[in-house]
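In these records, each integer encodes one residue's backbone shape. Here is one protein:

___
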Amino acid sequence: MTEQHSLLARHAPKWFGRALDALDEPEKRALGHAKARTIASRDPNEAYAETMTFGERLADRVASFGGSWTFIIIFCLFLVLWAAANVWLLTRPFDPYPFIFLNLMLSMLAALQAPVIMMSQNRQSAKDRRNAELDYEVNLKAEIEIMALHEKLDALRTEHLAALIEKQNEQIRLLTALLERREGQAG
């Protein structure tokens, strides 16, 4: 057992009321950060970006563009041009009204875009859970640090109080000695 592990095992019941083995990983990490006096907060975006695959990054980009005003404006312009070309501009339209080919393309686009957006949303949910876990670790560490500060303040207060009592006892002893000397001189 390493020195760090034994230190954590000694403090786990004190701060969490459970043995070190009974703590979950965020609690162990928070306790480790508190005892080592290291920073527990991390950038969740960096931590999550390191684990992203190419497909996940692509899904995020597609969902980001597909949910933007740029996409909506470009798509609306495309639909207006398609309809104008097939109704007024072309003498032999390739997709006459009611635009069956356009409906097929729109259905295929929706069939592809929906799962990509859902993948991105699932990843965002996982990212949110990771953020919550990191926040939990930081909050635990802060609580441990606050409890440790309270202990230190209590110890200082006790030490200060003991010093005051000692000083008062010394003053009482001196006053008693003065009174005895005065009574001895008067009597």
